[in-house]
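Tip: read the tokens left to right.
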């Protein structure tokens, strides 16, 4: 793994300047036992809550070159389309009990997911897709519901075992929430936080509940071209904060007959954002085939390095990402297991691809408008080369010298107080342009998402 000389020089050069304005402590944090959450358990009924969110999700995509989508007319004929439009209202109603008292506590959680298709024109929706649920012929399902979460929890001190349908959020296995409703997983997981600065996660799962499906599905890869599936995903890892300014993560996952994947991540903070601060982030994945090798031989090392300078309301970030492998850097479909800096509308994860992103964020809080932010970014990927790939699971043989770029602008606002406190509104416009064989295509997308949380009990 070779870290770009430019990024290393920026990090070293910034260190001497920021040392004079150090506000984030660089001190070592000794391991200390955390106060027992189970000792403070209020009781099954006393600690129960009923809450949820409702999300209005709208997106319109337009192809900049040839048609990228297809739709079925009522007579069964299939037609190309240069646009795709989706508009839904997704609502989650969640019941969580409190933990029973005693050394070993038990609790339950259940959440109903409901989606209403506010746009039902099959030509505009261009389904089936993972945005609006449709029948196989593209006819939109106007309203649907499912059990999104349903699990039993057992806790000793600060260690909790969860069995059933639930969410996890780790670098190798994470729920994805970028649609009207999020995904969730069926299985068992363990989270242990017995120390203030050290926590552990482990889990094993056999099914995924997709964002836009009512049924459970087996796991498959995001970029595999053959549609093969697996019955079991297992993972283990920990998060550790050795310094007040440094957080680290180390995880491993085993996807039966697909791959073994290993992850290391670190974020370091230096300086004072009132004058100048530097945030450095490193993400590294190593992926190797395993078992029956349903996706063929995989030998992939992918990493990203980001440097973000903040001065009061302004943050400028540069991020370098590189794939070392003759196949895509891959992760599981219906998950967000890709903690890479340049995972945007495109993941910039082609075989042997290099990418560079430059972004700017303006936080309006110092100007008297807390919760309001603006951002703009540009990312470019090049050097894609799949000609050395000898397998059949990834469609990369025709990728040689492919390039693409992406830029986007966005704004977001989170209401700070009042009856709509924490309501979030986000609007983005993204443009992606690709060379002939790069897989993401040339398109524009406008998206507006409004999420309103609520509490009933």
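Filled-in amino acids:
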């Amino acid at each position: 793994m070779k870290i770009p000389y430019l990024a290393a020089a920026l990090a070293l050069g910034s260190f001497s300047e920021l040392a004079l304005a150090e506000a984030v402590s660089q001190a070592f944090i000794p391991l200390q036992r955390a106060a027992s959450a189970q000792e403070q358990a209020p009781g099954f009924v006393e600690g129960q809550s009923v809450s949820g969110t409702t999300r209005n999700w709208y997106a319109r995509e337009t192809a900049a070159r040839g048609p990228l989508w297809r739709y079925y007319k009522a007579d069964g004929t299939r037609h190309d389309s240069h646009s795709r439009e989706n508009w839904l209202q997704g609502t989650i109603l969640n019941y969580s009990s409190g933990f029973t008292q005693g050394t070993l506590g038990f609790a339950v959680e259940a959440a109903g997911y409901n989606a209403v298709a506010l746009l039902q024109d099959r030509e505009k929706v261009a389904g089936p897709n993972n945005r609006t649920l449709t029948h196989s012929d593209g006819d939109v399902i106007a309203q649907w519901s499912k059990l999104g979460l349903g699990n039993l929890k057992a806790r000793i001190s600060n260690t909790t075992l969860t069995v059933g349908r639930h969410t996890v959020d780790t670098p190798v296995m994470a729920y994805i929430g970028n649609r009207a409703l999020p995904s969730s997983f069926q299985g068992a997981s363990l989270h242990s936080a017995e120390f203030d600065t050290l926590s552990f996660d482990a889990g094993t799962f056999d099914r995924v509940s997709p964002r836009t499906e009512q049924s459970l599905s087996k796991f498959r890869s995001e970029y595999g071209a053959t549609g093969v599936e697996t019955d079991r995903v297992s993972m283990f890892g920990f998060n550790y904060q050795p310094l007040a300014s440094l957080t680290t993560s180390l995880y491993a996952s085993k996807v039966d007959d697909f791959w073994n994947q290993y992850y290391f991540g670190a974020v370091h903070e230096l300086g004072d954002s009132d004058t100048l601060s530097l945030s450095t982030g490193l993400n590294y994945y190593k992926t190797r085939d395993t078992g029956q090798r349903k996706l063929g031989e995989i030998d992939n090392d992918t990493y990203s390095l980001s440097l973000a300078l903040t001065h009061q309301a302004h943050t400028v970030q540069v991020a370098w990402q590189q794939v070392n492998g003759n196949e895509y850097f891959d992760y599981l479909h219906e998950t967000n297991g890709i903690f890479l800096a340049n995972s945007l509308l495109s993941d910039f994860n082609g075989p042997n691809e290099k990418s560079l992103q430059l972004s700017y964020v303006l936080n309006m809080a110092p100007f008297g408008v807390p919760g309001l932010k603006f951002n703009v970014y540009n990312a470019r990927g090049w050097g894609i080369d799949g000609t050395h790939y000898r397998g059949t699971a990834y469609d990369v043989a025709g990728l040689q010298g492919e390039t693409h770029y992406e830029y986007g602008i966005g704004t977001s606002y989170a209401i700070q107080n009042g009856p709509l406190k924490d309501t979030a509104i986000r609007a983005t416009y993204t443009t992606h342009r690709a060379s002939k064989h790069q897989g993401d295509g040339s398109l524009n997308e406008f998206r507006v998402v409004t999420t309103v949380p609520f509490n009933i009990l």
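The helical segments are 5-19, 122-125. Residues 1-20 have pLDDT under 50 and may be disordered.
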